[in-house]
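Hi there. Long-time user, first ticket. I'm pasting a complex I've been working with (about 938 residues overall). I'd like to know whether the download I got is complete or cut off, because the file seemed smaller than I expected. Thanks.
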Amino acid sequence: MNIKGILTMEWVQLWRSPMRWSAIIVYLALGAYAVFSGQQYVQKWAVAIDKVELEEKEMAEQALSWYAEGVKGPEDRAWVDIQQPLWASWYTGSYFCKTPAPLAVVSLGVSDTRSNYARISRFSSPFDTRNKPELINPEQLMAGHFDLAFVLVFLSPLLLLLLSFDILGYERDEGMLPLIRLQAGSLAAWAGLRVGFQWSLAFAATAVLWLMAAWAAGSWGLSLWLGLLLSGLYLLFWGGLILLVLSMRQGLSFNALTLAILWMVVSILLPAAANLWGQAQYPHDYSTEITDAQRADRYALYDKEAEELEPQLFEVFPEARHSAYVQDTVRDPLIDRHYYDVAGLLLNEAAAAEAVATEAGRERLARKSTWYNPAYAMQMGLDAVAGNSSAAYLAFNADISAAVKAKVVQLLAFALEKEPLDAEKFQVLRQTVGPNLNYAGQVPGRSWLVLLLYTVLIGGIGAWRLRKG
Amino acid sequence: MVRLILSNELKGSLRDRRVQLLAGFTALLLLLSAWSGQGTYTHLADAREQAAAKAEAEWDSLGAYNPHSAAHFGTYAYRPLGLLRMLDAGVQPFTGDVLKVEGHVANEALYAEASRSSSLMRFSAFQPALVLQAIVPLLLIFLAFGSIARERETGTLKMLVLQGASFRQLMAGKALAYWIISLGLLLVTVLIMAILYGGQMAWDTFALFMLAYALYYLLAALLSVYVSARARRSSSALAVLLGGWLLWVFILPKLAAQLGQSLYPLPSRIVFEEQMREDRKKGLDGHNPSDERRKALEEKVLLEYEVDSIEQLPINFDGIVMQADEEYGNQVWDKHFGDYYQTVQQQNRVIQWASALAPFLAVRNLSMALAGTSLYDHLHFQQSVEDYRRGWVKALNDEHAYGGSKTGEWGWKAEAAFFQSMEDYTYERPGLSWSLANRWPEIVVLLAWLLVAVGLVAFSRNLSVLDQN
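Hi, the file is complete. Here it is re-exported in full:
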């Protein structure tokens, strides 16, 4: 087989085909726009985080200045007493933020349906992030962002299909297949080489888009190469599908029609079916467990005496058992408030556990769906690389819960000491909220595996059928 | 002659195994999606009913309670589900349809489905609207791409024209035949809805819903046949039609939404909330005795009651202060949310005008509007809840002020009967004319496209097309 001759022919055909060039240029243009829009989105996100942190810093600095001046609060708010844990808590309005990952521009994932920062206060719930996403037009959410992930998941296969759809079909329509078989020796190798050439083109165009994204994000780290490998595998999977269709040895129209149907099935129907299955297993609800925890059940706590809440107190903070205040019979309403906070925290935790179990179930089901849902395997892989997957947000919410708990317990510990809270303790309170995280750097191992398996299986069958014939 | 061509094409298509397969597959998708939509609808409707009943019961069982504490306790407003949500969920999965009604703050909708879903949500949901808007036109493309081009390729086109069929008759007959097949699929939808909800259905709205789709399919059929007539080969016709479909259904909707966001950007939530907070600070602070506005109000009330101090007032001044603060807060809300809604509507105008390029957008928006699941419906619901909240908070503040307590009596409780006498929230969905009035550009676009398509077919000349052979 004349490999050089076949590749030269492909190159000449490409050179003389305005349709192919136009497709590549349009693909690159759409990808560039997607990178630009992703970058705009991420910049807005980063600015919001900066603002949140500045707000927290200013508030804390104001409080620290009161400690330094030996005053309890602002002059016009006589009731503020920064030496009380409750007020100190107010002024350590610490935020825990999910910062954009280095390659967040690639896939916005679910970041637009959740908030990327949460105020860690006595009343915070991990569900605050679900209910206060960034301001966005719901019609845009419905249509989905025009991010690079969209281009890579939906359009990169189309580019490959467009470049390859006439392979073999055209020759069949023109009655040249016997000649090709004679000249090339192996139809499988001939078709494989041609599809491989078009794959290289599509991959090269895709690599350009990845490099644009890396340049826009200023990130040339491991994530870029993980993502590039993922894109290569995804295109290989589509190359395998093309070989399978070609192995049917039909004409141009049949091939085009079949490839279009396959694209629709893989990109629309299979993910939609997975969605359907997820909805059936974990239907949406009105989150009454959370509303109860934050309202009816919480208010029912207030009808109780603080002492009645001691079991909850000891569960969260066993050291409380030995504190002088617990053993004393004289009550201090300001300290008792922490009892209610702790009991409220436990209510929130119980409700969140139920809701999180549902979300984790949805996530598990979605991950499992990758075995029959290659487009989602690709999307999930891109989300993981970009740090914007639903799994990343589940982890973020778990960290919010942990931070709220740490703060509530720390406040209780300070309150039980029955000593004025000083600047040092104020700083300790601020630090109960850990450093911001971006939840990036997840290796999209499952996505690689799924795509590789499909490529080997489908491409293998296609090549075998072509060789057999 | 048109009738004869139509009848022949219809018979031929219905006997064709490939058409049977494709149409059967589409009908199956429609049935599956309707089954899933019905399951989701029933589950949500039940969950909504239970949650709403629970919220009402909790409110009614408050017992004797302080009105201001009751305002903090709050209640929930649930949006009823329209029957057509089963067919088209629109933006509802992204907006949420429950709002907490409470004092001091006008909340946004909570617990949107998207905020608790995996990133599978990024793909199309498996709902009848997906099949009706995207898959049925694709079926029409598959049916029609070779309708004329293949006749030309096989040489039967000239024979047909020589036998007396004018070219436009041929095109019209074929397009109408495919349209009738697509109407069959609409009939499946009508039957499903009639069987499931025949008695409860608003048939006028449903008829318009179906009419919008019927016109859309007529447009798709006419354009597909026209492209087939203009193309040199059936494979070129298929490529053009698939490209157009992709552009209309996938690329332009995203691009239009993105463009709207770029042209009319929304502020980040942190900035938005900070501005609202700042504006509210300028007004009365219900808990701030040093506030200047409060002083002015105090003087006015003292003068009105002809007493010298708050303590001498026969009423509870705190209730008056809180209501005044609410009213100022309402102005702030109106200003900021008014700006927000205006920006969102400007973004939507871009999408509406983009529908001039992609009639898919027109039918998608009309479908949502008629199903009551559009953004406008959501905003209407939110405004309706806000109107209710204002009356509700005023009633509580008035009770606090004039119900029998004196200033500073925060422990005073209103009787249980008072809370029970407060009306529960009910939502009246706006009428059909309201829905359509918001969507006149889409109606114009759809009709204009149809007119163009009819014109293209009606003014096609025989020779120009036959010459291509």
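A couple of notes from our side: Chain A touches chain B through 89 residues (CB under 8 Å). The two ends of chain A are 17 Å apart (CA to CA).
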